[in-house]
Amino acid sequence: MVYGEATAILAGDALQTFAYEVLAKLRCPAEAKVRIIEEIARATGTVEGMIGGQVMDLEAERKKPDGKTLEFIHRYKTGALITASLVTGGLYAGCGHAELQRLRDFGRSVGLAFQIIDDVLDVTQSSAQLGKTAGKDQAVEKATYPALFGLEASIKQADMLVASGCSALDSFGSRADMLKTLAHFLVERKK
């Protein structure tokens, strides 16, 4: 690191607060803007958000968590951010409650599938293929789906989650085609 860990942490903190400055300037109705800010705050926060999921992930290292704990960790790491990006897009576009719930269901399913496949790739791909250090999850005995359920069951679970998520968007018709294509791409990275 050029500037050290402390500076890196502060830079992350600064970027996170800058996000709220950007969100406050959105050109949309005030009610939508407030709900978007709330959604992003929750998704990055400690209770049902990325920070809370990351804390639990660190606490689970070198332990053998159960499936429920592992799902919680994964849902509230990357999954929370994926879900928030979908729901905030829906809020910005003026979606109603039912449409927002379908976007949330899709995001929760695909976000979890994404993290499961990320765990699979850490085991099955090289560092060159991943563009990051492969095998680091195993090195720190991180709680992962392949470690708990095996590769085949993990891949099957990710495929089922994508199918479930895509079905949540069926009522959107062809307007959801791009999201469905993206969801399938996320899990096809396993190949």
Summing up helix and strand content along with how strands pair, one would put the structural category as: mainly alpha
* Secondary structure tally: strands: 0
CATH architecture: Orthogonal Bundle
Largest sheet: none
Would you kindly provide a written description of the structure presented here, covering whatever features stand out?
The mean pLDDT is 89. The protein is mainly α and 191 residues long. 74% of the residues lie in helices and 0% in strands. It is built from eleven helices and no strands. The protein is globular. It has a single domain (5-188), classed as Orthogonal Bundle (Farnesyl Diphosphate Synthase). It has helices spanning 5-24, 30-44, 50-60, 67-75, 78-93, 97-124, 127-130, 136-139, 145-149, 151-168, 177-188.
Short description:
The chain is mostly helical. It has helices spanning 5-24, 30-44, 50-60, 67-75, 78-93, 97-124, 127-130, 136-139, 145-149, 151-168, 177-188. It has eleven helices and no strands.
List keywords for this structure.
191 residues, mainly alpha, Farnesyl Diphosphate Synthase
Topology:
Elements: H1 5-24, H2 30-44, H3 50-60, H4 67-75, H5 78-93, H6 97-124, H7 127-130, H8 136-139, H9 145-149, H10 151-168, H11 177-188
Helix pairs in contact: 2-5, 3-4, 5-6, 6-10, 10-11
